[in-house]
Structure formats: structure tokens, C-alpha cells
């Protein structure tokens, strides 16, 4: 049995369909006049990205490529991370000085199982200095999204050569078809009383290791 409400709905939708069928669909050109081509010297990009990350309450360490393993090991030791997850394809040398347990991630490990990790170490695809945003796209060394969201500590290694000054320049380096995760500081939110709560949607602690000579 058709109710009056359902009958009226079908009448309205029918008229919309008829109108769309009769009316020509104009070709619309959407202007994409984004600002592009912005560049900054290495030292300015490094300083700007560091300021933004610190504003978001992330911890930042700067090092040369040859000291990556030392810095990563020091960070994990300081955070008392005894069991650390790594994605497939991560440079093994980065954990070469770490004396804890390293767990290689795989799709066979359910997302809740990742909560047993004390930390995770990943690489990154690109970063935006202007917004302090780090982009992960699931490439080798970055892993699946759950790996960087479930553990309470995320240590992310960023090569300064992958840091762009602005958003358009950073986005232009991404592959649209890849699953992109945007990270701007540790996970945090606030309730109606403006009480800040960390670790709700992702890691409570974000540590960024910026390699300056890559």
C-alpha cells in the first residue's frame, strides 16, 4: 500500500528526473588557480616545519642521515618502548641500534592486535612546512593506516628533501590513488568544556625525526 507521503515523494522525484532529462547539461570549468611554485631555502623550511610541529605538541629531533639509527634508538629508549612495530620496506638500519623487540607488520595482524605495540616507526611520503602536516601514502616504509594510528607512540622519519613549503606543492607530490593519511601533531580533541584529550583517534605521542642531508 502506498502512503500519501510516499506518493508525493515519487511525484517530486519524477518531476526532477524529467527536468534533468530535458535540460541540457552545461560543461562547467572549475578554476584551479591555486598558488604554486612556492619555495623556501632548506633552513627556512626546516625551521618552519619544526615550529609548526612543536605548536602541535609533537617532539622534533634533527639529525644527519648517518645518525638516524642513534636518534631513533634514543627516542624509543626514552619512551620505554620495548616492542616496536615497523612496516614492510622500512630501512632496517634505522632500527639497527634499537635493543628492543621489532615486530614486522603484516595484513594478517588484526588492527586490535597492534595495540600491544609500544611504538611504531615509519617513513613518510611528503610534508608541508606551512601547516606542519606529514603525509603518509602507504608506500614501502610507511605501511597501512592502522599501523600508524593504533600504537600509542608514532616515530616518523622525515627527509628534508620531501618537505615542501606550502600545501599545493605538497599535494602535487602525492599520488591521488594512494591511501593518504595526514598527520598534524599527536591525536587530540576537546569536549564541550574545551578539555583537551589526547590519544583518542591516534597516537598520543608523535616524534618526528628530520634528516637534513638526504
Automatic annotation (TrEMBL):
InterPro entries registered for this protein in UniProt: FTHF_cligase-like_sf, LUD_dom, NagB/RpiA_transferase-like
Source organism: Streptomyces finlayi
Highest taxon in the source lineage: Bacteria
The protein, known as: Lactate utilization protein C
Name of one Pfam family that matches: LUD_dom
Occurrences of domain LUD (ranges): 52-210
Amino acid at each position: 500500500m502506498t502512503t500519501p507521503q510516499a506518493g508525493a515523494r515519487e511525484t517530486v522525484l519524477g518531476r526532477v528526473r524529467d527536468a534533468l532529462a530535458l535540460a541540457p547539461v552545461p560543461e562547467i570549468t572549475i578554476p584551479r588557480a591555486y598558488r604554486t611554485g612556492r619555495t623556501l631555502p632548506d633552513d627556512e623550511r626546516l625551521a618552519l616545519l619544526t615550529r609548526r610541529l612543536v605548536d602541535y605538541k609533537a617532539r622534533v629531533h634533527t639529525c644527519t642521515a648517518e645518525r638516524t639509527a642513534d636518534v631513533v634508538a634514543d627516542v624509543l629508549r626514552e619512551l620505554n618502548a620495548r616492542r616496536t612495530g615497523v612496516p614492510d620496506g622500512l630501512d632496517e638500519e634505522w632500527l639497527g641500534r634499537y635493543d628492543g623487540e621489532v615486530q614486522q607488520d603484516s595484513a594478517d595482524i588484526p588492527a586490535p592486535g597492534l595495540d600491544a605495540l609500544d611504538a611504531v616507526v615509519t617513513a613518510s611520503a611528503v610534508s608541508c612546512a606551512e601547516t606542519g602536516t606529514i603525509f603518509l601514502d602507504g608506500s614501502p616504509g610507511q605501511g597501512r593506516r592502522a599501523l600508524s594510528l593504533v600504537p600509542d607512540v608514532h616515530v616518523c622519519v622525515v627527509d628534508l628533501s620531501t618537505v615542501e613549503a606550502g600545501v599545493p606543492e605538497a599535494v602535487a607530490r602525492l599520488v591521488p590513488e594512494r591511501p593518504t593519511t595526514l598527520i598534524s601533531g599527536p591525536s587530540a580533541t576537546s569536549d564541550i568544556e574545551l578539555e583537551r584529550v589526547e590519544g583518542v583517534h591516534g597516537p598520543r605521542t608523535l616524534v618526528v625525526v628530520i634528516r637534513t642531508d638526504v
